[in-house]
């Protein structure tokens, strides 16, 4: 196959990207995205600070634009995200504790109902873990304890019974304290019949540092009866990137695609963006860049060839 999506589909998988509203006016970028990818995650447009910046007042415009782009190019959508401590409006964090649950449930119900039938999956809870495997003491945890996660999943399931419901996090790609914490929660949720369908492994990697236990870790979650997905892949390099680092990045992308293909319940891989020129990495990790499969002139890099050849 000559595109990522065709090659992924031949293996029963998808290959996705993240797009922001700003990206939609860049026709070079959108043409490339539509040619290569069959899944879209909105980069920011379905987050709480966009969809409900003041209590009870919902704004669907930005998210709808991403959905409509996806639909017009036969791409599916990963909804991202309903409950997260970041990009959360101040009104939520400053609510009296006894109002947080109602606000969370209303947010989930209203957003998941709006997008019912239009999203393949939801990252219902995003980044709930600390590095040591304990749950973050965020506003949701403080109000409801660890039960907020099951409550969020049940609320999302009631609003959109067909969407695959995920917990999504970073630094859980290898077997470590953080993924062990999530693993025991996932075991409990599955045993209790809570509607959890999948685990999203963000996969914001540093070149040469893809965890060797990636495949085994995805497999142990899959063995619980869950789907797994690489949801936000990028592989950053300390700038300036030299040719050996770009070759290593190719080996990293190949290894990640191979790990997904080796796990039958790995449904797909999504890169967090399209080209190096629009990635979030340089703005968030100063000194790092070049994390994507296409460079800032939209030329395919070794990482693209390696991903395609691995499929
Ligand atoms: C990032 C976006 O790409 C940026 O534009 C924004 O400023 C911050 O958030 N984990 C996630 C994503 O789950 O939502 C984040 O996206 C990247 C880290």
What small molecules does the structure contain? Answer: (3S,4R)-3-hydroxy-2-oxopiperidin-4-yl beta-D-xylopyranoside
Total individual domains: 1
Terminal-residue CA separation: 9 Å
CATH class division: Alpha Beta
Order of helices and strands: HEHEHHEHHEHHEHEEHEHEHEH
The CATH superfamily turns out to be: Glycosidases
Instruction: Assign a percent range to the helix content.
Output: 40-55%
Summarize the biggest pleated sheet.
8 strands, parallel, barrel
**CATH T-level topology:** TIM Barrel
The secondary structure category is: alpha/beta
Write the CATH architecture name: Alpha-Beta Barrel
Q: Your description of this structure?
A:
With 311 residues, the protein is of the alpha/beta class. It has one domain: Glycosidases (TIM Barrel, Alpha-Beta Barrel). It is built from 13 helices and ten strands. It has helices spanning 4-10, 27-36, 48-51, 61-72, 90-93, 97-114, 139-144, 147-159, 177-191, 214-222, 243-262, 281-284, 302-310; strands spanning 14-19, 39-42, 76-83, 121-126, 164-169, 198-201, 204-206, 227-238, 266-271, 288-289. An eight-stranded parallel barrel has the order 1-2-3-4-5-6-8-9, surrounded by six helices. Helix 6 packs parallel to helix 8 (147-159) and helix 10 packs parallel to helix 11 (243-262). It is globular and about 55 Å long. The protein binds (3S,4R)-3-hydroxy-2-oxopiperidin-4-yl beta-D-xylopyranoside.
